[in-house]
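Review session, final week

We close the course with one last complete record, chosen because it touches almost every idea we covered. It is DUF922 domain-containing protein, a protein from Novipirellula artificiosorum with 270 residues. Go through it on your own first, then we will talk.
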Amino acid sequence: MWHWRGRNALELQGEDRNSPDSALRLAKQYTFMSLHIKRRAMLPVVARVLMALAAIFLINLPTAKAQSGTIELSELPPPPPSVAKLLNQADVRFCYGWQEKPSSMTMPNGRRLGGLTVYKMNYDFRTQSRLQRRGNRQQMVTTIRLGSGGLRCDHIVWFRERPSRETFWTNRLVLHELDHVRISSDPRHEKRFRELLLENAVLVQQSDGTVSTELGQSRQSAKDRVEAIFRQITALVDIRYKELDRLTDHGMMKLPRGKFPGLSGDDSVR
C-alpha cells in the first residue's frame, strides 16, 4: 500500500473593471492568467494565479503616491462582533499605499483603483493506493482524502489611501471589500468541496506496467480530479463576486436588501 500527499493553491487577485459582466474576457485580454509549476522535495506544488473577479472600488484620485503600510487591527477601534468573527475566520490583512499594492495596474480609461481584495484558497490531500487482482487483470485502486486543514482561505485587502481610523468600520469602501471577504470565506464552500470529493474519492485504473509507473499515473489522476473539483468551488466564488459588483456598481451603491443574504446590506451582519 502506498501513500502520497498533494497540495494546491489558487490565488485570485481582483480588479473589477467598468464592464462587470465581462471579467473573464478582460482577464484574457490583459493576460492576467499565468500558471507556475513548482517542485519542492518530491511533492509537486501547483500555484495558479488567476487575476480576475474580485473587489475594486473605482474613484478618481490625485496622481501623487500615498504612504504605504499595514493597517494593524490594534490601531483601529474594536470592530462590530460580526466583523470581528469574520476577520478571525477569513484571516484578513489590511494594507494601503503603492508600496503594498498587490498589482500596479490601472483602468484602461486611466481611472485608478481605490480598493482591492486578494484571496487565496488552498488545500492539501492524501492518496492511498493498492493493487488488487480481478481474475487475470490487475488494478490500481486509489482513495483520495482531504487533508486535516480542509479548504483554507486568507485575504489581503488593499486601499489606495488609508481609510480614517475613526470611521474605518463604517467606511463604504471597507464594507464593500468585507462583503467580498464574506463571499470567499463562506464555510459552505468547504462543505461542498468535501461533498464533491467524497463522491469522487475512489479511482480505479487497469495496471499493466510497473508499480512505480502505475503509482505515478494514479497520483497524477488524483491530483487532476481534486483540482477539477476545486475549480468548481472557485468558479462559484467568481460568479458571486461578479454578481455583488453588478448589484452595487462595484461598491458605489448600497447593496439592495434581500438580494445577497449575509452581506452588509442584510440585517444579519449588523
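Two points worth writing down before the exam:
The radius of gyration is 22 Å.
The first helix runs from residue 23 to 29.
Good luck, everyone.
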